[in-house]
Amino acid sequence: MTNKDRKSPKKAANDLSVVLRAALGEDRFPVDVEALAFEVSKNFDDPITKIRGVEIDGFDGVLRASRKKPSWRILYNTATRYPGRERFTLAHEFGHYVLHRRPLKATDYADGVLANGFDFECFPLQANEWKDVEKEREEEADTFASYLLMPIDDYRDQVAGEDMTLSLLDHVTNRYGVSLTAAVRKWIEFTDKRAAMVVARDGFALWGRASNAAFKTGIFIPSGMPIPDDSIAARGPEAQGNETNTAITLPEGVWRFSRGREPVRELTIFSDRLGMSVSLLVFENTIVSYDFEETKEWDTYDQFVFRGRP
Amino acid sequence: MPTPVGERIRQQRLKKGLTLEQLAQEIGSSKSYMWELENKDVARPSAEKLQAIAQALDTTMDYLLAADDVTEADATDKEFYRKYRGMENKTKKKLQRMLELLDEDNDE
Fold first, then answer.
1. How high is the ipTM of this complex?
2. Fewer CB in a 10 Å sphere around the end CB: N or C, chain A?
3. How far is residue A92's CA from residue A143's CA, in Å, rounded to a whole number?
4. CB–CB of B20 and A67 under 8 A?
5. Are strands A204-210 and A195-201 parallel, antiparallel or unpaired?
6. Whose CA is closest to A1, among A36, A39, A33, A44?
7. Is A288 helix (H, G, I), strand (E, B) or coil?
8. Cross-strand partners of A74
9. Residues belonging to chain A with any Cβ–Cβ distance to chain B shorter than 8 Å
10. What does pTM read for this prediction?
11. Mean pLDDT per segment of 10 residues, for chain A of length 310 residues?
C-alpha cells in the first residue's frame, strides 16, 4: 500500500466502528478485535490467519508475514502485568495490517517460501529517516487502536459532560476493555475542558498531554518535568484521604505552567505495581480562547467524490 | 522510552531498596540526572559513571550493559527491530521460538 491511497488511521478505525455498530449495536463493546481482524482480513488475498497471545516479558506484539503462503500472523502479549493493555496491543498490530502492510501475493512465494527482504519495511530509507518513519507508523497504529476501541462519539455519551471521576473512569475502562492510561489519554484528546494528564515515576513526569483548550492557554508537560512537592501525585495516596473518587481542588501555584498560577483540581491514580502515577488535572478558570473547530477528516475518497460532483 | 541500560539500573536499584535520591547521592550525581538515566533514551552515561552505579548497586558494568549487546542481524524481522533490541536475551530466545513454531504450523 502506498501512502497516497490509504485511509488515515482515524478514518480507517471510524469506518470499522460504523460497521460494528450496525452489526452489533450496544453489544459491540468491548470490541472483539480478534474476531474483527479475522472477519475483515478475510476479504483480502492475504488474510490474518493466526492470532496468538503469548506471555513474554518486555514484548508487546508483532505483525508477521507467513513464510509459506500469503497470510499474516499476530503475536501479542497477554501477560497480566498490564491489564487492559492486551486489547490495545492487538488493535495496534491489526492497525499495522490495515494501514501499513504491503499486500502479499502468491507470486511472492514462487520458491515455496517468502522471498527474503520482503518484510514490512519496504522503502529504501536513510538511517535517520528510518527512525522518523518508524515512529510515525507506531503512532498511527496507536491512533487506529484508540479510535477503534474508544470511538469518540460513544465516549462523549458516556461522560455526558460530567466531571471525570474514578468511578466514571472505571466505567469507561470496563466498557472499552482498555487500560486506565489509554482511557484518560483519550478523554484528554476530545474534552472541551482545560485539562491535562501527567504520567509520573520517581518524582518526574515520564510524559504528559494537555487538552486542546489547555494547550492553547500555555499548558504543556515536557518529559522530565519535576512533579511539584505539594501535588497529590508527589504526596501520595494519603493526601487524598477518603476522597479517592473525585478530583481534589488545590490552591493556585501548586501546579505551575507557563501562564501564571491558577487553582487546579487533581485526581491521581497510583499504581504500586508499576511504580507510576497518572494525574488528571482540570483547571478551574475558564479562559476565553478562540473556539477550536474540529476539522473533519478528509481523505482521498472524499476528494474523489467531491471532484466527481456535477 | 527507557533504554535497556536504564531499565536494568532501575530494576537493580529497586532490588537493593534504594530510592532515586539515595543512588544519586551515592554516585555524586543529581536526582534529575539519575532519573534521566533510568527513564530517557537520550542519556548516555560515561564509563566512569556507569562503573560507579554498578558498584553502588553491587553489580557489574557488564550486567548493566548486557541488554544492549545485540546487533540488527540478530533480529529476523526488521519491523520490530527496535522493540526487539530492547529485550533481554531470555525474552528474545522465547520470542524466536514462538515465531519458529508459528512458521512450522500449517495454516488451516
1. 0.73
2. C
3. 8
4. no
5. antiparallel
6. A44
7. coil
8. A51, A63
9. 49-50, 52, 54, 56-60, 62-64, 66-69, 71, 73, 75, 96, 119-121, 134, 201-204, 206, 223-224, 226, 275
10. 0.81
11. 71 96 93 96 95 82 85 86 83 93 85 61 44 82 96 95 92 95 95 95 95 92 94 93 88 82 91 89 68 48 46
What are the distances in angstroms from CA A209 to CA A202, A279, B35? 19, 11, 20
Count A/B contacts: CB-CB distance under 8 Å. Answer: 78
Contact between A208 and A61 under an 8 Å Cβ cutoff? The reply is no
Determine whether the interchain pair A120/B78 forms a contact, defined as Cβ–Cβ distance below 8 Å: yes
DSSP three-state, residue A144: helix
| pLDDT above 70: residue B42 | no
* % chain A with pLDDT above 70: 82
What would the DSSP string read from start to end of A151-210? Answer: -HHHHHHHHTTPPP-HHHHHHHHHHHT--HHHHHHHHHHH-SS-EEEEEEETTEEEEEEE
Q: Are A203 and B103 an interchain contact pair (Cβ–Cβ within 8 Å)? A: no
